[in-house]
Amino acid sequence: MIRIAAVGDVHLGADARGRMRPALENVGEHADVLLLAGDLTRHGTLDEAQVVAEEFADLPVPVVAVLGNHDHHDDKPVEVARLLSDSGLHVLEGDAVVFEVGGERIGVAGVKGFGGGFAGKCGSNFGEREMKAFVGHTIEIAETLRAVLASIEADVRVALTHYSPVPDTLRGEPPEIYPFLGSYLLGEAIDATGTDLAIHGHAHFGTEQGMTPGGVRVRNVAQPIIRSAYTVYHVEPMVRAAVAG
Amino acid sequence: MTSEPYLSAHLHRAIAEDPRTAEAGVRATVRGDHVLLSGDVACEQRRADLEAVVHEVAPDLHVVDDVRVVSVAEPEGSEELR
Ligand SMILES: [Fe+2]
Ligand SMILES: [Fe+2]
């Protein structure tokens, strides 16, 4: 059994420095790995990224993160990711990490994701350049996610995104804004690759639990939803084998 | 006076885009003379910043502040996925 701690949308800045640290220092008692589902900062500045780095550095378990839209706001996503990587976090954008925990391997593939909407109610890669850029960004990210998930060799495979792969976990948000909260293309990539669990954030007013059309568990771990420093999932490696068999 | 839907839209944008708040997770609901703020923020300072920004955009409205500071406690229990 692998214990996965996860939280998204911590939106840290200098004013919130150190708030999470006491609970984080005990994360090893709850989990084997900690996943951060984006929106680590408020504006994506390097000063805020430094606060994030201090909060999540030197923890007893590996920390794996993707960036969110807020972490892009200052147009320095590469620098923010580098600063966090230099502090020992694994920042993913179109790549994966695999850890061994008690003889079992957990692989995490991470992308930010993007919007577009869900089957039958989504944008199309058509028309104005701006529209094609919007939908094209999601298509590109979903293709990357699919390739990275497929490449992982592990007993438990997790997809980590900021945007949602399903509408289920958005319940509580106005339906009119679903196209800005996620895309079915992410869900399709998850379903095509035998993934065990999908973790995302971004929808602060959504709900925690959902499922892809292919039966993969989805969890929205935005901090306002989980109401704690992080939440913990225990995943049995045989889940996928049992379903597939 | 700005009509209610436009005022709601201005408040929504200000809360999301003003650098002092940059909150995507706070709702502002205008009802007559009142504006209700709801949602979660990362620390106490941000509740005060929110009220200040809202007051600038809509100085005539009475602010009802239901915004909560998000808990950063250790989790109780875990979910078994099998
Ligand atoms: Fe967020
Ligand atoms: Fe977000």
UniProtKB/TrEMBL annotation, chain A:
Q: Which residues form the Calcineurin-like phosphoesterase domain?
A: 2-204
UniProt xrefs under Gene3D superfamilies: 3.60.21.10
Q: Report keywords, A-Z.
A: Hydrolase, Metal-binding
GO CC, sorted alphabetically, is: membrane
| InterPro entries, sorted | Calcineurin-like_PHP, Metallo-depent_PP-like, Metallophosphoesterase_sf, UCP008292
Which SUPFAM superfamilies does this UniProt record tie to the protein?
Answer: Metallo-dependent phosphatases
Q: Which GO terms describe its biological process?
A: lipid A biosynthetic process
A Pfam cross-reference name: Metallophos
A molecular function (GO) term: UDP-2,3-diacylglucosamine hydrolase activity
**UniProt-recorded name of the protein:** Metallophosphoesterase
Species in which this protein is naturally found: Umezawaea endophytica
TrEMBL record, chain B:
Q: What organism does the record attribute this protein to?
A: Umezawaea endophytica
* Domain BON: start-end pairs: 7-70
Q: What is this protein called?
A: BON domain-containing protein
Instruction: Return the InterPro entries for the record.
Output: BON_dom
